[in-house]
């Protein structure tokens, strides 16, 4: 695994430390910039683990929040800190009695990205007219505190003894609508998942069968042509059940469209 991002995160963290220690209030902006870059490095590093599962275009999403959201769509544990333990099972399927801890992989969570990345970002441009009037966006003690907090978060993630552990199990299919490979990471502890095609947004429900393999079923429903003389049935993807969406009936050639409606229910008697 390429260690480049980790090395760069460490360097950015060191430069942030220098800026913070200088005591110069305007160098706080520089510290904020370096800390944001360290965060980006850690999220990009995480994304590298999903190389096989993600189209390059998606992998190159630069905003850490968006990128992490993409990762979370294929793996709900993408931003979770995990501790790796191992042991020898005495019987198959029974957890081992004696476990050795290998270490903890301290992840940057989506919550932390939301909390720090945007907040620090607001100091990296000239204050807007509104901010100037409210005396906001100007380096101050609040920025220093945010920088120090984020410094600790990045430092603890970089201190992880195990990182980039990749114990993965995946299941995939070719999207029934566009053919793109749709991949979902799965865990032995859960038998049901949702997945969405990154390309066309067709959604699927996955359930584990008795043989342990996952079955993929596209989300949607069978609808009838509204023409009373036709009633031809058609399977419509859930993605396409939306106001304004329509389909041409293959039997009568007419068009069916989803529209707003008003339903009336008479007042209950008594
Ligand atoms: Zn698709
Ligand atoms: Zn029809």
Helix/strand structural class: alpha+beta
Radius of gyration: 26 Å
Spell out which ligands are present: zinc ion
The outline comes out as: extended
Helical element count? Answer: 7
- First-residue to last-residue Cα separation: 72 Å
Percent of residues in beta strands: 15-25%
Explain what this protein looks like in three dimensions:
This protein is an alpha+beta fold and 270 residues long. The protein folds into three domains: 155 residues; 50 residues, no CATH class; 37 residues, no CATH class. Helix content is 33%, strand content 20%. The chain has a three-stranded antiparallel beta sheet with strand order 5-6-7, with no helix packed on it. It has a two-stranded antiparallel sheet with strand order 1-2. Helix 1 packs antiparallel against helix 2, helix 1 runs antiparallel to helix 7 and helix 2 packs parallel to helix 7. It is extended, with a radius of gyration of 26 Å. The model has no long low-confidence stretch (mean pLDDT 87). The structure holds zinc ion (ZN) (2 copies).
Provide the descriptors you would attach to this structure in a database record:
270 residues; two-stranded antiparallel ribbon; alpha+beta; binds zinc ion; single chain
């Amino acid at each position: 695994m390429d260690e480049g991002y980790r090395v760069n995160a460490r360097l950015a963290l060191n430069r942030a430390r220098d800026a913070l220690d200088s005591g110069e209030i305007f160098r706080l902006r520089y510290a904020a910039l370096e800390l944001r870059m360290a965060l980006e490095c850690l999220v990009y590093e995480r994304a590298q683990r999903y190389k096989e599962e993600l189209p390059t275009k998606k992998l190159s999403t630069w905003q850490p929040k968006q990128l992490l959201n993409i990762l979370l769509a294929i793996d709900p544990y993408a931003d979770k800190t995990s501790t790796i333990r191992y042991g020898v099972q005495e019987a198959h399927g029974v957890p081992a009695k004696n476990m050795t801890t290998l270490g903890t992989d301290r992840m940057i969570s989506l919550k932390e990205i939301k909390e720090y990345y945007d907040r620090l970002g607001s100091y990296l441009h000239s204050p807007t007219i509104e901010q100037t009037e409210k005396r906001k966006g100007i380096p101050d003690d609040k920025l220093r505190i945010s920088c120090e907090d984020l410094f600790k978060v990045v430092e603890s993630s970089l201190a992880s003894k195990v990182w980039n552990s990749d114990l993965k199990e995946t299941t995939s299919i070719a999207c029934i609508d566009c053919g793109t490979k749709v991949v979902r990471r799965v865990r032995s502890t859960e038998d049901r998942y949702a997945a969405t095609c990154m390309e066309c947004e067709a959604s699927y429900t996955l359930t584990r069968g008795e043989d342990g393999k996952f079955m993929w079923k596209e989300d949607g429903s069978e609808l009838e042509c509204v023409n009373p003389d036709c009633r031809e049935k058609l399977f419509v993807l859930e993605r396409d059940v939306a106001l304004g969406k329509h389909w041409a009936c293959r039997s009568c050639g007419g068009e069916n469209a989803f529209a707003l409606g008003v339903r009336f229910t008479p007042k209950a008697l008594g």
